[in-house]
Amino acid sequence: MLSVLQGIIKEEKPDGVPIPVMLAGFTDACQFSKLGIQDYGFLPAAMPPGFSWERAIHSTDERIPVEALDFGVRAMYKTLIQFGA
User: Fold this and answer.
1) Among 26, 44, 73, 85, which residue carries the largest CB count within 10 Å?
2) Read out DSSP for 52-81?
3) What are the residue ranges spanned by the domains of the chain?
4) What Å distances lie between residue 32 and 8, 35, 78, 81, CA to CA?
5) For every one of its 85 residues, what pLDDT tens digit does the chain have, with 9 covering 90 and above?
6) CA-CA-CA-CA torsion for 63, 69, 71, 77, nearest 10 degrees?
7) CB atoms < 10 A from the CB of 48, how many?
8) Residue 62: its pLDDT value, please?
9) R_g (Cα) of the chain, nearest Å
10) Do residues 62 and 48 touch, judged by C-beta distance below 8 A?
11) 3-state secondary structure at position 30
12) Which CATH number fits domain 2-84: 1.10.150.900, 1.20.1560.10, 3.40.1210.10, 3.20.20.210?
């Protein structure tokens, strides 16, 4: 699974480096796990150099650059196609 997600990131951004990040928060993953569904919390976003994402995510002025969102949408689409087929 991890190699597939890394491959999708590299396909969209060959010079990108996929990194794991732990964010505090709550998801519905605990409900899915009770049903036997594994959750990975995949949130692809190619942040531009110098963007302080740790100050922008889950803050009063929560935001990401449009380019990062566009990258994430493409990567999520490829992920859904890969695992939905």
Assistant:
1) 44
2) -HHHHTTSTT----HHHHHHHHHHHHHHHH
3) 2-84
4) 24, 5, 22, 20
5) 778 888 999 999 998 888 777 766 667 788 888 899 877 778 888 888 888 877 877 778 888 899 999 999 999 999 989 887 6
6) 140
7) 10
8) 84
9) 14
10) no
11) helix
12) 1.10.150.900
Single-letter residue type at 35 = L
Q: List C-alpha distances in Å: 60 to 9, 24, 47, 55.
A: 29, 15, 19, 9
Q: What is the pLDDT of residue 24?
A: 66
CB 45 within 8 A of CB 72: yes
Q: Which residue has the tokens 């060959």?
A: 14
Cβ–Cβ under 8 Å, residues 58 and 23 = yes
Nearest CA among 55, 53, 75 for reference residue 65: 53
CA neighbor of 4 nearest in space, from 66, 61, 82: 82
